[in-house]
Amino acid sequence: MKTVYLRELKLNLKSLIIWSLTVGGLGLSCILMYTSMNSDMKDMADMFSNMGAFSDAFGMSTLSIASLEGFFATEVGVVHGLGSGMFAALCTIGIISKEEERHSGEFLLSLPISRIRVAAAKGLCVLTMLVVFTAVCAVLYVTGFMILNEEISYAEFADFMIKQFLMNLEISAICFLISALSDRIKTGAGLGLAMIFYVYDLIGRVVPDLKDYLFFGPYSYCNASEIFSGEDPCISGIVVSAIVTVACIAAAFIGYNRRDLKS
Amino acid sequence: MTNVIEIEHLTKSYGKARGVIDVSLKVKEGDIFGFLGPNGAGKSTTIRSMLGFLKINEGSIKILGMDSIKDHETILKKVGYMPSEAWFYDSMRVSEVIKYAADVRGLDCTEEAGKLCERLKMDTHKRIKELSLGNRKKVSIVCAMQHRPKIFIFDEPTSGLDPLMQRNFFELINEYVNEGATCLLSTHVLSEVNRYCKNAAIMREGRLTMLESPGIDEDAFLKFYEDEEENS
To answer: Hey, is the C-beta of B81 within 8 angstroms of any chain A C-beta?
Structure first.
């Protein structure tokens, strides 16, 4: 299992470096822009906080973008939320199905390793990548705060990063299930899924009737504006997320173990 | 001689499509067993069921006295399998693929792999994507043989290999069999069965018929193919 895990990590290393540096780098650039935009920000903050549903959707009605926390939550929160969700989907959607699409499954499964252990090694690889991705982004964001020499609540920052990680885990779990049950790499489906979840959350925050159903989506509990404005966490969202994550991973293992290898 | 492969009433279907029907087969230790049959007759389905790639509908398969489902991993430790299509990871070098296979087995097969690569005249520095079918087949042979398994299962092993390599391949099989291994050889090439196999069976439309002797003449052999063509 260790050999398969290490091989998988090596195969995905380039993608991990590119994605974590791109998303983390974009976030860092946004943070560094804060000082240069700070002087013009006060007027903008008043305007942005009075744009009704639009302000609600991006959290600008509860946080002032003139503060670093508000700026981070509304700007970097969006970049990281969308970027990390897409990365989670992309790195997982083909992790198992590529063996069938590229016909290497017959070679792999002829070695003395069960399907359960193959799936476990690949799942562990995804988990490692998500941890490293989150850690690299967090380090880059903290570097930005330190360069600006600005104070930010690190407890809320840690809360945000952990919840984003859990959201990534949920998207990965759904994509892991799709990958385990399909014989094609469904990149479009994986990316589409991440986008749909993000848009669902965005629309849910604008349309009042949808607000009560936000907890179905993985973005419901990791909204940066809610976390940094100290709102109560969306417990129902976290519970649904935990159930979906565990159920998808279990279904992926069971489904993959019962499948015939494609000819 | 004990039976190293025992298949009893194996049935496997793919939804409504026929796979194999009520196949029973015994292969004795030290045998080189020829497994003949037209395309789509069910040879690969039988082999893939033996290796646990497919979930069987009915019947049982025992390899080296072990159940093919319950003892799947233990069986694969003692089996060397060469699929009809030799696919690996394109970006890996030949040496990396061979080492990867040994590492997953938890074995150091450097010496045996080196010997096999020399016999098969392989360039281990090339990447898999640079290899022809014949050279990919050679990688597959090394991966199947380097751990000196008790049973070899080859699915159309010589397609793509040049005549010299075909000869080297059968020399290697004979050497391992002389040391106590057993070989199941699925092939379309009658001359290979006539020359190297001690026993043989032929599959048609998912059913297996044991041959009295592997020394079957070409007309009788082609009759099986014609029958399959007519019925398909």
So the answer is: yes
